[in-house]
Known about the structure:
The chain contains eight helices and eight strands. Helix 7 runs parallel beside helix 8 (227-239). It is 36% helix and 17% strand. The protein has helices at 4-14, 35-45, 67-76, 94-100, 115-124, 170-183, 198-207, 227-239; strands at residues 22-25, 50-55, 81-86, 104-108, 128-133, 151-155, 189-193, 211-214. It has a single domain (27-239), classed as Aldolase class I (TIM Barrel).
Amino acid sequence: MMQSSEMQANGRRWRWLQNPCLVSPSLMCADLLRLGEDIKALEVAGADALHVDVMDGHYVDNLALGYDLLKQVRDATHLPIDVHLMVEHPESCIERVLAAGADLCIIHSETTRTPLRLLRTIHATGAAAGIAINPATTVESIELLLPLVQMVLVMTVEPGFAGQRLVGFTLEKIEQLAALRASKSMQFTIGVDGAVSQEVVSNAASCGATFFVGGTSGVFLGDGTDFTTAIKGLKQAAKQR
């Protein structure tokens, strides 16, 4: 476990995660042929961070954004970048992801035999560390790791693809995590990823979530709604909990 002085030093860099409502648009849902323009538009629209999914085609049946693109995103924005690693053996790529500019790096505990080592590696660079839990992953399975993370990302759909329907029972995990956080005086942020519509944001915020990954259900709506209106709608929904 990290020394308290190191935790305190990094804590200043992690403070952005304590915002009462954060919307992080998922760049895998953006128009990759005009990604630079979309990033600038999302900044103006009020995005609080940018979510980058890295997929290897093994842990999930999809391929997504890589290191070179992550570097270009880092150069293109002042916003924090949260990277969600949906890959087998993340220890083989974690250092490249961190070097490419991740401010928050989120792993799945099922993908590694050494989750503690990975969390320490992330913290050593000053980045925040997170754990994602799939619909079938229990909160109990990650409970011992909670004091070492700054984010728990609750997957409300199966990971790997946009456009899925909400798995309803996943919202119960948010309540469970919020209760654990309060009972043990921990400070990790609870995030939600998957089918994040205004309705889901309202319900998830009521359970204790404050970080919302916006995909095709919330930000990239495909019906002519501009980013400003979409992001504003999600933030208003969070306040109406």
